[in-house]
Amino acid sequence: ESFPPLRNEAAVRVLRGRMKGIQGHCNSCYMDAALFSLFSCTSVLDSMLFKPFLLCDRNVQSILRDEIVNPLRKTGFVRARSVMHLREQLTEKGQCSSFTNAEKDPEEFLNLIMHQILGVEPLLKLQSGGQEQDCYCHQIFMDKQEDLVVPHVQQLVEHSFLSSDLKLVEIPSCFIIQMPRFGKEYKMFSKIIPSLELDITDLLLDSPRECCVCGDIATLECS
User: Fold this and answer.
1) Could you say which of 2.120.10.80, 3.90.70.10, 3.40.50.10330, 3.40.50.620 is the CATH number of the domain covering 8-118?
2) C-alpha span between 45 and 54 (Å, rounded)
């Protein structure tokens, strides 16, 4: 039996409280947070759970669907053993023994499971310096901004695209964004406010936009 993503009052009722979410174990936080974000309250990537992609590993797909996503949506809780089962499979498929015990970058996890194991097409098409590149998520890299104390996600994405000279070639079907990294020694921001809607108008390549002076269609863009 498959369960739909949690919405509104149901999400609050099922996911809030003690012993809720995905249980952490042995440096699994990067994977726990990524899986919770991708599947708990949205169905945009549910094709990963059901669709028989060309390169799809059905064993990994069934573990992801039946042991992690469905229990999360049904009861709001996933045991660490289920995530470890997935990590063991990723270790076997990815020829990387540290997936079961070491902390990884979420982007490395997404690339492995989406590209190499499930065969999902890249979600993002970006252009930088005239060169196009395909990827599955955008990791925010930026210098410390003194005027951004408690930023919104919208501000971070815009600053990141501007500083890296990036543009979206097309509107993405799914826009996965990894927040600025931080560790025990350093945190760039103590808090980040989620933007419930993301305006990507200024991030799109060759998108018609309004001139901020006269209101007509803009012909020039100043960074």
Assistant:
1) 3.90.70.10
2) 16
Are the CB atoms for 136 and 110 separated by under 8 Å? yes
Per-residue pLDDT of 104-140, as tens digits, reads 888 999 999 998 888 889 999 999 988 999 999 999 9
The full set of domain ranges for the chain reads: 8-118, 121-222
Model pTM score: 0.87
